[in-house]
Amino acid sequence: MGLERLAVVMQDVDSVFDIDTMKEIRDKVCELSHKTYRQDAMDDVSIRLITDHIRSATFMISDGIRPGTGNREYVLRRIIRRAARHGRILGIDGLFMARLAEVVINNSKDGYPELEEKKEFIFKTLNTEEERFNRTLDNGLLKLSEMEEEMTKKGEKVLSGENAFMLYDTFGFPVDLTQEILEEKGFTYDEAGFDACMKKQKETARGARKETNYMGADATVYNELPTDYISEFDGYDKTESKEVIKNICLITEEGGEISSELLEGDKGAIIVEKTPFYATMGGQQGDKGVIVTESGRFVVEDTIKVVGNKIAHVGHVETGMISAGKEATFKVDVALRQATCQNHSATHLLQKALREVLGNHVEQAGSFQDPYRTRFDFSHDKAMSSEELAKVEALVNERIAAGVDVVTNVMSMDEARNSGAMALFGEKYGDSVRVVSMGEYSKELCGGTHVKNTADIGTFKIVSESGVAGGVRRIEAITGANVIKYYKKVEETLNEAAAQAKADPANLVAKIASLQKELKEVSSELESMKAKAAKEALGDASGDMEDVKGVNLIAKALSGVDMNGLRDLGDELKASVGENGVIVLASEADGKVSLMVMATDGAIAKGAHAGNLIKEVAPKVGGGGGGRPNMAQAGGKNPAGIAEALTTAKEVLTSQIS
To answer: H or E element: which one contains 149?
Structure first.
């Protein structure tokens, strides 16, 4: 029956919205909206919808899902935004979702303690998404309202697919929300037309995307493989084995075909029933290496999982010929495997360290490990500080130095959960799972390959931290020999910088400070010389002043003065033009034009507007610009038009003055 339906029976109420936990949320919705339940049927629909959706959204965020465009991410975004819209329908002012989530958490935290642990992150996620949707909703509703008015005028009841797609593509307005709003007013939309627009956009995007991998997603040769066997990875404890080649795929630019052999230079894929090569999965890149037979040598550039639960060793024949049905020696590149294992094991330690430093709201949102780095995406709503990064890095290196054995156990899913192992929400696991433990510090479900002991990782260094999506951050890090290479590169850069600064590396900071001080003094002296030169170029501008309907205008051309210089001159000329004045200065330097217009308060009161004036003047010098009523600036590429620009400035000012 489900817990809620059982509660309906036990509590002898009419619906799930009347049981104690749901009623408390429902009552909070009524309190915020100043509505009474069961007084208005339409209000009741909104009250029940919000009550249901806020429970779902709260638990989904707690489980590590973030609003986005992916499958489950979009479901979360949809229910948050749908609830937010119905909050508006009920007349709830301001952000309210987090306030309702607090009721959900208080009701359920005894059975789900993680809700209390992650409540601040849940609140922040809801507030952020609600704020974002409010902006989307305002823009989309305005445009949709205009479309509805147009439909009404024409006597139409169906919104065109093109318009529905425009709301989706330009305004970020979900089509299902468009449909819901239209249906409330007796309209609908052309679903087929919308789908056609969506298909056209995808085809355009696909056509613009250049495939760079001959094993691209469009290859269908694997669909032709026999279905009577699957491939098994048996390389957790070995990197070399002898196997009989079951099938060979010849890969061509057109796609490929099943073949009995590959010749020297051919690109292809080799499939066997058992292999020590790990196939790309769970964020870990597939192994590289070689496959050797009596007649040839095949270089494995990548190992991937393909249709039919088979493992394909993708690469090319380096020498000789490779034939199906022949025994071959499969040799994994041990150095690359070990480097990948170092990065993968370090990622487990990284996730635990992040949860210690940032909080238990941290959940994995994606990862990638190859021999050169680890990339870890995680849920967090702001950039990490340098102190937080240093603390995380130190925690990981502490565990590496502790030399803890990395132990893998195969157990049932229930046993894994009871052991406290972390699982990724949304991942599909079989009846038996692999649990990778690093002492009591880290315990996760993982099918990848790892080091035998944390000391094998060597050392760990975070090289970057950045944002990749709303509420998702990314750390890139390196381990082992790659850290040594990193510091070697830093040392080389430091020595090069010291040589350029003519200083010892140990004294480089002091030398830079000295150079900065010297540069500041030189820059100051240069600015003074520029200002002096600009004044000399300007000369006595009072003789150039004209009266334009009671407003004093100085419009003058200069040479070699930059925009900063023009602004300084304009400030000085204000005294010359008096209370009612406009200053227009144009200067040519290095083939480019700088324009600056200033207007006093008295001139503005009479109708002068610097921003509007410069908009009409700038095209004369091949440019554009704008600004406020009292000050505006522009640039141009046609110095020959300066004289015409100054003449136009007088004409525009004349038209502005009332």
So the answer is: helix 119-154
Query: In the chain, count of helices (H) and strands (E)?
Result: 19, 26
> Comparing C-alpha atoms, which of 190, 322, 346 is closest to residue 266?
322
Specify the pTM. 0.66
Q: What is the pLDDT of residue 219?
A: 42
Phi, psi of 433 (to 5 degrees): -130, 155
The SS3 of residue 335 is helix
Pairing of strands 551-559, 581-589: parallel
pLDDT for residue 211? 39
pLDDT the model gives residue 220:
65
Question: Terminal CA-to-CA distance of the chain, rounded, Å?
Answer: 80
Indicate the pairing of strand 274-275 with strand 232-233. parallel
Query: Is there a contact between 576 and 598 (Cβ–Cβ < 8 Å)?
Result: no
Q: How far is CA 239 from CA 285, 306, 326, 484, in A?
A: 15, 21, 20, 26
Nearest partner of 391 among 416, 427, 355, 338, judged by Cα? 355
Contacts of 504 (CB under 8 A, 6+ apart): 498
Secondary structure (3-state) at 312: strand
Print the SS3 string covering 492-536: HHHHHHHHHCCCCHHHHHHHHHHHHHHHHHHHHHHHHHHHHHHHH
- DSSP conformation letters of 437-506: EETTTEEEE--S---SBGGGG--EEEEEEEEEETTEEEEEEEETHHHHHHHHHHHHHHHHHHHHTTS-GG
Per-residue pLDDT at 542: 65
Cβ atoms of 448 and 358 closer than 8 Å:
no
Which tokens belong to 3?
């817990």
Max distance between CA atoms of the chain, in angstroms, equals 101
CA distance 84 to 450: 45
For 119, phi and psi rounded to 5 degrees? -60, -40
What pLDDT is recorded for position 93?
87
SS3 303: strand
| Eight-class DSSP state of 422 | B
Tokens (6 digits) for 442: 């880290």
- List, for the chain, all residue ranges whose pLDDT scores fall below the cut of 50: 208-219
CA neighbor of 339 nearest in space, from 451, 238, 486, 475: 451
CB 343 within 8 A of CB 316: no
Reduced to 3 states (helix: H, G, I; strand: E, B; else coil), residue 383 is coil
Residue 363: the pLDDT is: 86
Candidates 309, 315, 294, 295; CA nearest to 214 is: 315
